[in-house]
Amino acid sequence: EGTIYVVSDAYPKIMTYNESKNYFEKALAILSPLNPSYSDLRVNYQMNIAAILVKEESFDSASRLYQIISSQNIHLNEIYHNLGIISSNKGRYAQAINYFRKVNYSNSSRVIDLDYNFALCFSKLAAYDSSRSYLAKGFQNNLIWNGHRKNVSLGLLYHLAADDHLFRRDWKASAALYQQSIQQFYPAFNDSDIHRNPEIFTGIFSYAHLFKSLVSKAAVFEELNRQKPDSSLLRFALDSYRSAFKLSDYILTTYTSEESRMFLLKNTNDISDKVIQLCLELGKLTKKNKFEEEAFYFDQRNKAFLLTLSLQENKMHLLKAGNDTIVAKQYNLRREVTRLSLSAAFINDSNKISQLNAEIRDDEISLAALQSSLSRDLKYSRLLSATILPSLPEVQREIGRYSKLLSYHLSPNSLVIFCLGQQFYKHIEIPLDSSFYSALSALTTGLHRLDPSQRYPGSVTAMKLYNFLIRPLTPWLHDTRQLIIIPENELSYLPFEALEPSPGRYLVENFTTQYQYSAALLLQKSIKSNAAYTLAFAPYDVDTPSGDFSALPYSAQEVNAIKGKIYIGKEATKEKFLNLANKYDIIQLATHAVANDSAPGLSFIAFYPGSLVPVNQTRLYAPEIYNLRLDSVNLIFLSACETGGGKLIHGEGILSLSRAFSYAGCPNIITSLWKANDQTTAFISTRFHHYLQQGERIDKALQLSKLDLLQSPAISPALKTPDHWANLIFIGSSEQLINNNHPLCYMIVVLAFITSLLFFYFYRKNRRPSPGLR
């Protein structure tokens, strides 16, 4: 699995690919290139680094390193073998076979892996006789070298043999061979019954291969059902998928490396549609609600899992932070790695970049050591391994009486909508064709157009999408006032408020709307504080010295309408934000922002640039936001443009600036999906704070603000189409925020105090002593 064991005096440490690479690179840096006695050791380290790059699928970097090493005419067997694996992974199977033929292992167990690689490539080239011949050799060599001991190489051979029987439509033999591979990949599991699967996972094992074998076995049961329909076969398939997801949850909560987490998230996302459809089909066949409810679980399981897990980890770190210096050191090191990485992104001097990369490597080594120390805390490990996904009843308890939760599962050919209320659960399946995706693309393009000189082009597509996304649910929404929407994939770019039930009528007129990344986040509660009320920044009220962005003349008007601490123009600096952010309940950022789709880490929010420091140091970049602590902040209003946009990662959602603030601990975000109109944004923001100070919930205050804009005679009709106001959406909970600075709050507090005193006075006056007491 790429796990490398380093035995120290204290304990064996398990390293990930990246950690191992850091240690080998540090060792290389220590060795003097001028000392010839170190040449063999240097090559050994380079070979290890190249092998890790292959495991990380950094194939081009690995190839370059192997080419450098091969010039010394040593370790050629290993080099050719790995170059063949690289070619195979790139789909160049004939080239891979040519590399493998150059390998001549003598007295080495690596011959088993070579046999497997030959068999795999010949299978991909449809040369099945050759493939089966090498499979047979692989099994024979494994018996010579490993006897009857379980091992990963044998598991790979079993899995490939199962694939071969699957091709030959020998379903039962294929399932039995997949079962054999499962036993090899997870040594603690010994059951040869194809209907049985691992239920509990522990220890070290080949999780990536095990996951694939469980999923492959499930697919065999599904195929058997297609040949001869039988609900029991679908149950067996679902059992295998359940085991794969349990494995995924174990790895995600136990292994802290991004490489293991991203691998499993990608793979669970790839099969989520199959599993959801399987659950719904079993629900229809058996008439049992538990399968339909399980479909909802799998839908949520694959939405924003990393964000949910990270928030749980951050919360646990905060609980430990009071008496644990490890957490503080982790926090500081992560910030330093972020600072160094951003510095490296804006310089061209190769020597300076190498120096920065060396510093990053050393900090990452220190971070890994701290994480290992933290993971040995048994209490911490037990808390982290606990499930982070709520049950259906837990989710329903978080839904208000007049609210409905709508979770959308989008696949190429169908749309599944899960609809939940306090005592209500339904789902609906809608077939899709290319016209749905065409309408979705056309509407998002029309909304982003923002050209007052041209007529808004999205009305027809907004009505068409309403018929797909909302109209089928209308029988269940008759008593609904609030929608909690959990979108998926391309729907994440769509503001549902802009949908039109009829020409010129918008969904925002019928419901308040809030969005969430996952139902699990409905249970994330903010840590209440005694912080001041509002902190606001408007750095671009006039033209800035550098001229990097245009002025936002309405932004000063926007923040001046807020009661709180206001910074405008040259006072609105990044330094002030970093120093004050976690001391306020609400933060308003009325500025520019850029969402970088190709490099999400370079997305940023702009503060006043000034002229004395490089402009990149005045910008708040996404990685810096991830490292902030905003657990005392209840709401961030990002009226900056494009804070809600960014790169879409299937399953995880949009890697936006607003998501970064959620990760940092703020539970409620108002963000912008596209470049906004300065005037309409300022209007909505001003009215929003007005309603918020009157005690309205966040979603209600935002709805009323948009309705005010639609009805205001002061706003031009050209600015009342959704492209000018639907960009602002609310992501979070529907908690009511109380303005601690508002006079009404003081009156309530004073009246409550006086009432308590009067109650205590009359209680003492009317109380009679009991016999024997005084």
What structural keywords apply?
single chain, alpha/beta, 6-stranded mixed beta sheet, globular, disordered N terminus
Description:
Strand 8 (532-538), helix 21 (553-560) and strand 9 (565-568) form a beta-alpha-beta unit. The protein is built from 27 helices and 18 strands. The model is unreliable at 1-14, 736-765 and 767-774 (pLDDT under 50). It has 774 residues and is an alpha/beta fold. Helix 11 packs antiparallel against helix 12 (258-286). The strands form five sheets. Strands 9-8-10-14-17-18 form a six-stranded mixed sheet, with helices on both faces. A five-stranded mixed sheet has the order 5-4-3-6-7. Strands 11-12-13 form a three-stranded antiparallel sheet.
In short:
The chain contains 27 helices and 18 strands. By secondary structure, the protein is α/β, with parallel strands linked by helices.
Strand content: 5-15%
- Whole-Å distance between the termini? 75 Å
Q: Gyration radius, to the nearest Å?
A: 30 Å
Query: What is the typical, i.e. mean, pLDDT?
Result: 85
Secondary structural class: alpha/beta
The biggest sheet amounts to: 6 strands, mixed
Tell me roughly what share of residues is in helical segments.
40-55%
- Strand element count: 18
Strand order of the largest sheet: 9-8-10-14-17-18
Low-pLDDT windows of residues: 1-14, 736-765, 767-774
Name the shape in a single word. Answer: globular
Instruction: Please count the helical segments.
Output: 27
